[in-house]
Amino acid sequence: MLSGPECLKKIFERECSCKYTYLFLDNSMPLMSGLDLVKEIRNRDIDKEHEELMIHIVSGGISQSDRQDLMYEGVRSIIMKPVPFETMKKLLM
């Protein structure tokens, strides 16, 4: 598990040429909320290199206003914990 700033570093300061396809975030992470992290990813992605990044929020509970804000920022889905294996399988196909 990474904090928000550690996640940003992995995405934007990577040492390999790999490109992430999926990102699963908790809305309650150390140092930065999932919403703040999604906003920061979208703000930093000026060249649209990560435009296709499919971001999914996994949460034990989330307010309706956070849900709306996350979807506005381009989150693909919001999944409530515990996440059934079949749900994860569908998201990755």
Mind explaining what this structure looks like?
This protein has one domain: Response regulator (Rossmann fold), CATH 3.40.50.2300. 39% of the residues lie in helices and 20% in strands. The strands form two sheets. Strands 1-4-5 form a three-stranded parallel beta sheet, covered by helices on one side. Strands 2-3 form a two-stranded antiparallel ribbon. By secondary structure, the protein is α/β, with parallel strands linked by helices. The chain is globular. It contains four helices and five strands; from the N terminus they run H-E-E-E-H-E-H-E-H. Helix 1 (4-12) runs parallel beside helix 2 (34-44). The model has no long low-confidence stretch (mean pLDDT 86).
What is the strand and helix layout of this fold?
Blueprint: H1 4-12, E1 22-26, E2 28-29, E3 32-33, H2 34-44, E4 54-59, H3 64-72, E5 77-80, H4 85-91
Parallel strand pairs: 1-4, 4-5
Antiparallel strand pairs: 2-3
Helix pairs in contact: 1-2
Short description:
It contains four helices and five strands. The protein is of the alpha/beta class.
Shape: globular
Total domain count: 1
Stretches with pLDDT under 50, minimum 5 residues = none
Strand content: 15-25%
Helices and strands: which structural class? alpha/beta
Keywords:
alpha/beta; Rossmann fold; 3-stranded parallel sheet; 4 helices; globular; 93 residues; two-stranded antiparallel ribbon
